[in-house]
Amino acid sequence: MTLAPRAVLVHRTTEYEELLARHGTHGQAAFFLSTRGRDIDEVAERHRRARQALTDVAAAVPLRWRGARVERADLDRFLFGPEDVVVVVGQDGLVANAAKYLTGQPVVGIDAEPGRNPGVLVRHRAADAAKLLPHAAAGASGATELTMVEAVTDDGQRLRALNEIYVGAAGHQTARYRISSGAAPGGAEAQASSGVIVGTGAGATGWLGSLRRQSGAGLRAPDPHEGRLLWFVREAWASPTTGTSLVHGELTRDQRLWLTVESDRLVAFGDGMETDALGLGWGQSVRVGVAGTALRLVG
């Protein structure tokens, strides 16, 4: 028997909820904000709109479907299924947070605060959910396929991200490693830097865009659907044992950036989620390139 589709609603804790968790009561939170020149009414209204959007989307799920909800902090512990339709209710960044745990499931981005978010990835309103969910479950024809980046370690650990992957020290201090770029490892250079960023076209307006402008390398930013990545080394340090000749470049689908760790411990994490990182020990290697799975964004 074929399983009914499951609507997985992805959301995140609002600022108002975080304030209540920290200060205990509405009044205490209001006092705290007032000392910083802010009004809690604005924060509470944004909370109300976000929760109303989540309620409206949940009500639009067809009755015969199954349903689940997952908060951003629990994404790394949630098991997505192949029959899921993932509905992200929140900000553009929340789509990126969810994307790294998916394997081709259709994603519907619902803007919880229209006018406040750019709406690049959360392209729809809560009122659109009733129409979009059946379309997504039926195959999501016309969905946009956004390129993702993937890091794979020599012991089989795997990490995907929609915008970028960082490889370096956990606290962004000096990282030591050997680096090479191409279809296979070779001609590696020993480096000391504050980390390496490998990013996609979806991330070209964020961290990657800033590095691209600062580098002056003239590399063209990838389109979000293009199977091409850019990579940059941050603050490479030249010394008698470390070089600076391999500090930026691009990767096509058949190319990888190869790094071998020469520090006690480095990490690799995606899209700013430092709490869900791969740990890399001395002598361990990691290759980073275009992921075999893309984000399927509906609409």
TrEMBL record:
InterPro entries: ATP-NAD_kinase_N (IPR017438), ATP-NAD_kinase_PpnK-typ_C (IPR017437), NAD/diacylglycerol_kinase_sf (IPR016064). It comes from Streptomyces typhae. This is NAD kinase. GO terms for molecular function: NAD+ kinase activity. PANTHER family: NAD KINASE 2, MITOCHONDRIAL (PTHR13158:SF5), PTHR13158. It comes from the Bacteria. GO terms for biological process: NAD+ metabolic process.
